[in-house]
Amino acid sequence: MAYVYDDQNIFAKILRGEIPNSTVLETKYSLAFRDVAPQAPDHILVIPRGPYVTFDHFAANATDAEIVDFTRTIGDVCRMTTLDPDNGDGYRLIANAGDHGVQDVPHLHVHILGGRVLGRMLSSTD
Ligand code: AMP
User: Fold this and answer.
1) How far is the CA of 20 from the centre of ligand 1 (A)?
2) Does a structural domain hold residue 84?
3) What is the CATH number of the domain that holds 70?
4) Which of 22, 28, 106, 117 is deepest in the core (most CB within 10 A)?
5) Number of domains forming the structure of the chain
6) Are 119 and 97 in contact (CB under 8 A)?
């Protein structure tokens, strides 16, 4: 089944400037902004500007330039916020997809979390 992108999702509205956001970094193909309900002292979302639903959708359909830009933006945000273990204490990346991944917003986003010890990777079967 092919992915169908819903252009009324909240991140699409952020990209169109219809909803404000707390921008951390903007690039040609990506946008990084603070999560509105942070789960850790640092909680930043990185999204591609293109209409991709999940990571696998993006990886299969994005251009090389988009993929490079998105990957580099995630790393740049980690360094800008000194979450990178080279300068700071580390971070976790999460990309939820679909029902079992408990994805709420159907536009690819990578969560960057840090600023405290985050515990084991999975803590609940709920
Ligand atoms: P997920 O469950 O992986 O789809 O995560 C969606 C994330 O988007 C959640 O962590 C929300 O807190 C976050 N979120 C929802 N609306 C906004 C918004 N307007 N600005 C920033 N973050 C948002």
Assistant:
1) 13
2) yes
3) 3.30.428.10
4) 106
5) 1
6) no
